[in-house]
């Protein structure tokens, strides 16, 4: 993996129910990209080889939220990019915390 991003999408809406509905649509979009991703309680991590593809996904997350019905959206984005090497994968970062007890 050469790139990973974490994105928290914050739609400006009047209810928690609407926040969840819009964020669900953004996550569905992320899932549709076919890239490996992990949904956490405050952000979604996405990993891939192509930095430009990840940046396009980040951009589109904002557009999906607007299309879903909010008038404005904020986002916090973390980017890890190593063009000449590998970044830690989602599993390497948190896999040990999510393994079932044997």
From TrEMBL:
GO terms for cellular component: cytosol. Pfam families: Thiamine_BP. It comes from the Bacteria. Residues 5-97 form the Thiamine-binding protein domain. Belongs to the UPF0045 family. PANTHER family: UPF0045 PROTEIN ECM15 (PTHR33777:SF1). This is Thiamine-binding protein. It comes from Porcincola intestinalis.
């Amino acid at each position: 993996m050469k790139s990973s991003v974490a994105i928290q999408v914050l739609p400006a809406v009047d209810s928690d129910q609407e926040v969840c509905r819009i964020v669900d649509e953004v996550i569905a979009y992320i899932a549709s990209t076919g890239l490996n991703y992990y949904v956490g309680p405050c952000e979604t991590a996405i990993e891939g080889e192509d930095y430009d593809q990840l940046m396009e996904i980040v951009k589109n997350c904002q557009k999906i939220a607007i299309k879903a019905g909010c008038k404005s959206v904020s986002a916090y984005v973390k980017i890890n990019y190593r063009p000449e090497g590998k970044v830690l994968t989602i599993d390497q970062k948190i896999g040990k915390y999510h393994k079932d007890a044997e």
